Amino acid sequence: MTIALIAHGGAGRWRPGSDDDATEGLRAAVEAGRAILAGGGRALDAVCATVVMLEDNPIFNAGTGAVLNFDGFCELDACVMESREARVGAVCGLQRVRNPVLVARKVMEETDHVMLTGDGAQRFARVMGFPDHDPVTPERRADWFDKRNRIDDVLGEHALKMRRFLKDHPEYAGGTVGAAAVDGQGVLAAATSTGGVTLKMVGRVGDSPFPGAGNYASPHVAASATGTGEFVLRSLATRAISERVEQGASLADAVAAVLGRMGEDFDADVGLIAVGRLGTPVALHRTKDMPHAFFSGAGAVVSRMRA
Ligand code: GLY
After folding, report:
1. How many domains are there within the chain?
2. From CA 11, how far away is CA 126, in angstroms rounded?
3. Catalytic: which of 23, 50, 176, 198?
4. 24-62 burial by CB neighbour count: b if 16+ within 10 A, else e?
5. CATH classification of the domain holding 68
6. Best of 207, 238, 272, 285 to mutate for ligand 1, by most ligand atoms within 8 A of CB?
7. Phi, psi of 141 (to 5 degrees)
8. For 202-213, what is each residue's pLDDT tens digit?
9. DSSP β-ladder status, 87-94 and 76-82
10. Which atom of ligand 1 lies nearest, measured to the CA of 10?
């Protein structure tokens, strides 16, 4: 079996001058996953190690450095899934944890449930030994003040302007992180982690923690989505990729078709990464940027801002 892994750092428009930080952060994260796979390790361990590095890197919108909601605090969502027996775990609305992806994995491995939310998820994290961690960085706090001030300027006139504002300034929307991998045993796994979208309503949950929407692993495909989660949820995008591959499409055609459909249906600002059993990673996006990195087999890690 050919080992392979691909990771993304979020679909959107990156701030000018930050390209190298994004691609180097992704390269390092994929190298960490690659070391696990090359040593005979599991795809699940590889995608978790990759996403942990992205969560710990404050330039990405996940874990430390995640964006703030309308009230000015983080609500973190994450999901892990493995193709074996469709094992899956997810968390939503964590406020004070360093690595939500590892809490999601604990939900999968230590409970009878698939998803825990809010206070329950936070309490579970503490019981599992995850220490208190404030993910809010000074940069994200300053950003939040700036955006709140600018949003207040337009919200009073017409709420639709908030949507227009975010469309004109897509760098203000989030940049989820995610990884998908296949290991030497042909097992596939995917992990996705996010702070959601900037200025989201308190309690809003996007696509990332939902299996089949923002994150999915089947015997055919492991995939992670990024961008405005409401469109991904309404499309069940990662599950749709797997179904198309199951029906005989190539992975590249399946990802292109699902992304194209989201364009037709919603003009969605989204991106997708996927890897199949044969180990060929695919990345496509409808946004200006989607930093991502990948490797397959003995090939070198490729890291770039757009596909
Ligand atoms: N795609 C991440 C979110 O919308 O929450």
Report:
1. 1
2. 32
3. 176
4. ebbbbbbbbbbebbeeebbbbbbbbbbbbbbbbbbbbbb
5. 3.60.20.30
6. 207
7. -65, -45
8. 999 999 999 999
9. antiparallel
10. 1
pLDDT tens digits, 161-215: 565 666 666 554 557 999 999 999 999 999 999 999 888 889 999 999 999 999 9
Classify 66 in phi/psi space as left (phi over 0), alpha (psi -120 to 50) or beta. beta
Closest residue by Cα to residue 77 from 198, 227, 214: 214
Range of the domain at 112: 4-304
CB 304 within 8 Å of CB 284: no
Q: How far is the CA of 197 from the centre of ligand 1 (A)?
A: 6
Pocket (CB within 6 angstroms of ligand 1)? 174, 176, 194, 196-197, 206-208, 214, 226-229
pTM of the model: 0.94
The strand pair at 87-94 and 115-117 is best described as parallel
Mean pLDDT of 131-155: 82
> Is 50 one of the annotated active-site residues of the chain?
no
Q: Which atom of ligand 1 is nearest to the CA of 232?
A: 1
Instruction: Please report the pLDDT score of residue 171 as a whole number.
Output: 53
Query: How wide is the angle at C-alpha 81 spanned by C-alphas 14 and 56, nearest 5°?
Result: 40
* 262's tokens: 């989201």
